[in-house]
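Session log. Operator J.P. requested a structure for one protein chain; no other inputs attached. Running the standard single-chain path with token output.
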Amino acid sequence: MDVKELKDIVLQANLLLPQYGLVTFTWGNVSQYDPETGLVAIKPSGVEYNSMTADDIVVLTLDGKKVEGRLNPSSDTPTHLELYRSFKGVHGIVHTHSRFATAFAQARTAIPPLGTTHGDYFHGAIPCTRDMSPEEVSGEYELETGKVIVECCPDYNNIPAALVASHGPFVWGTDAMEAVHNSVVLEELAAMAWITRTIRPGAEEMPAVLLDKHFFRKHGENAYYGQK
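Structure written below.
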């Protein structure tokens, strides 16, 4: 993939965030990693979505060296890069402060698998990281954010999202567009979980056999949902 195509994809993925109501002002970012070139394209820091162009997208190496772009990359760039380095096969990442998912993050609470909509996309609870230590916060904060996500997500292929405690969600996929798709689903699941446990505070997690059925009919070698 050439750099122009990579930047165009990342621009379009970023522009989907306000369309789906996942961001307020500039509270979010999307990136994509191209394993062929080893380059990452990401939203520039603090730039409004309605004025952003492909020329504004910043391109970096996986170790953070800027190779193209006149603007500063997102302040969350070190988090994205740490996830790309650690999560094999993840080539797209989204970070937002979407309302319901962020509420769970602020409550330091995982999003439980309560029904089949959740099971269609996530094979279990969407985890929340531990609190970061004062040393982690005062040090290389964004890099350490990536590290605590990696720490809490051993099953990152089957649960492609995490909530950073007191912060918000990071979501990933095989490319930027899939990561955006998963972000939209995550926000819906967070809203459903909140409403469900408001109606019935003791609502249990769905049975494991039902979770497995819904997840694996859409994912893995024996998936049969949709068209081949």
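Operator note: The mean pLDDT is 97.
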